[in-house]
Amino acid sequence: LRLKENAEEKLQYDRENKELISNISHDLKTPITAIKGYVEGILDGVASSPERLDKYIRTIYNKANDMDRLIDELTFYSKIDTNKIPYTFSKINVSRYFKDCVEEVGLDMEARGIELGYFNYVDDDVIVIADAEQMKRVINNIISNSVKYLDKKKGIINIRIKDVGDFIQVGIEDNGKGIAAKDLPNIFDRFYRADSSRNSSKGGSGIGLSIVRKIIEDHGGRIWATSKLGIGTEIHFVLRKYQEVIQDEQNTDRRG
């Protein structure tokens, strides 16, 4: 019975990896084709006005970013699969860190015509212990996933940081198509898609949110999503605040 289960698990693993390769191939080819088309347009003089040239260059920039993220995601995924994620934990000032993250991703959102809001409700001195690079991956992956499903005339993404006792809670909200209640518990599973269709033209490797969950859980945090169909989705995660144990140190001194 156990051998049968192992065989089925291996078959499932092989199927998922084949799907991943297929998805990655498709999603790399799409921006490459677009970049070639826009570069040819520039070389052929089609982008004759400064406005059109600016539009072409912005599009090339966005597509190159998409490719870079996809390749980086695949590299990181291989480390998850072998349990070799390199974490470098340090003290991070929450207000400064997330402000910098938002400013960085804001340039990309502006180029895409997406409105990005940032609301910080934690004190300036709040600290968490985290890997700065991997937390940036968390933010980028969640936002990238939101961007794929923005279907309104004006895309909006809001990031909120708030204090919840011993934790900070981060919420990243979009005004996209939303997710059905039955699908919400599964969106962090590897290769899961709420609209399941590879034909939906949304693209993506299907591993972005599973990577996010892995990183958050490795930080001792928790992640979940809330959503309303036709209104949008919000992904939330919590991280424990860092608090120095000054009292214990004083007690130790007295005992000594």
TrEMBL record:
<dbReference type="Pfam" id="PF00512">
    <property type="entry name" value="HisKA"/>
</dbReference>
<dbReference type="InterPro" id="IPR005467">
    <property type="entry name" value="His_kinase_dom"/>
</dbReference>
<dbReference type="GO" id="GO:0000155">
    <property type="term" value="F:phosphorelay sensor kinase activity"/>
</dbReference>
<dbReference type="InterPro" id="IPR004358">
    <property type="entry name" value="Sig_transdc_His_kin-like_C"/>
</dbReference>
<dbReference type="InterPro" id="IPR036890">
    <property type="entry name" value="HATPase_C_sf"/>
</dbReference>
<dbReference type="GO" id="GO:0004721">
    <property type="term" value="F:phosphoprotein phosphatase activity"/>
</dbReference>
<keyword id="KW-0902">Two-component regulatory system</keyword>
<keyword id="KW-0808">Transferase</keyword>
<dbReference type="InterPro" id="IPR036097">
    <property type="entry name" value="HisK_dim/P_sf"/>
</dbReference>
<dbReference type="GO" id="GO:0005886">
    <property type="term" value="C:plasma membrane"/>
</dbReference>
<keyword id="KW-0597">Phosphoprotein</keyword>
<feature type="domain" description="Histidine kinase">
    <location>
        <begin position="23"/>
        <end position="243"/>
    </location>
</feature>
<dbReference type="InterPro" id="IPR003594">
    <property type="entry name" value="HATPase_dom"/>
</dbReference>
<dbReference type="GO" id="GO:0016036">
    <property type="term" value="P:cellular response to phosphate starvation"/>
</dbReference>
<dbReference type="InterPro" id="IPR003661">
    <property type="entry name" value="HisK_dim/P_dom"/>
</dbReference>
<protein>
    <recommendedName>
        <fullName>histidine kinase</fullName>
        <ecNumber>2.7.13.3</ecNumber>
    </recommendedName>
</protein>
<keyword id="KW-0472">Membrane</keyword>
<keyword id="KW-0418">Kinase</keyword>
<dbReference type="Pfam" id="PF02518">
    <property type="entry name" value="HATPase_c"/>
</dbReference>
<dbReference type="InterPro" id="IPR050351">
    <property type="entry name" value="BphY/WalK/GraS-like"/>
</dbReference>
